[in-house]
Amino acid sequence: MILNRLLFSPVSVAGLAGRVVENRVFGLLRGVLLMVSATLVMVPVTQAATVDDVMAAGKSKIGAAKASQQRVDTIADETDELFQNFKQVNKQIEGLQVYNAQLEAQLADQRQTITDLEQSIENATLMERQITPLTLKMIDALEQFVSLDLPFLREERRDRIARLQANQSRSDLSSAEKFRQVLEAYKIESEYGARIDSYRDTVTVDGQPREVTLLRVGRIALIYQTPDQRITAAWDQRSRSWQVLDSGDYRSAVAEGIRMARKRAAVDMLQLPIPAPEMVQ
To answer: What's the pTM?
Structure first.
């Protein structure tokens, strides 16, 4: 409004020259004012555009930082998982090393065992050729021993020897098994000498077979007694015959010994006819 007043106020002819000068001045002022006005109008628009750009750039940076942090977290998780896997694999490797060392020791022992077995097989082949003659000799010796021993359990002992002799021809039995059976027979014979036993058998009394009760005390005494206890006799190894005993001296003792052998009485001292040992020539 001030400009309008200045530009359109009435002037005199006399001041025309001055008006021309004024018009130029006012023209210059108008241009300056228009430029200032345009500048004042453009400042808020430029500032608004700059703030939006800054906000957008900030959001972009925040998003980029968030994405970068997520990538960092992901890499950190993967790294931690790889580290845990690495430790687990290391433990497995340590366990495998210990296990392999143990296997090596076992393999060394097995190799030594194989060597020993190979040597034993070679020795067994030699021993097998020698064990059969030894077994036969032992059976013959056992048969001779039984024939010279006290005549107790004759049938049982002879049958055992007969089985041993028959088994020597069997192809389904190994030499080791045949030898084991002979050793078992020897063991049974050895146990007879450490036991007291009583059983019924038939012996010849006065030329007639008669059932009697025998009492065996190891291999030092073999005595029989008739069921009515009237006859008591002991085996005489020197004469290889039965010798009738005085019933008054040994009848009760033998009867008590039979009860002990059958576990019907407590073990106690007995007065029995024991022959004196023979001197070896």
So the answer is: 0.54
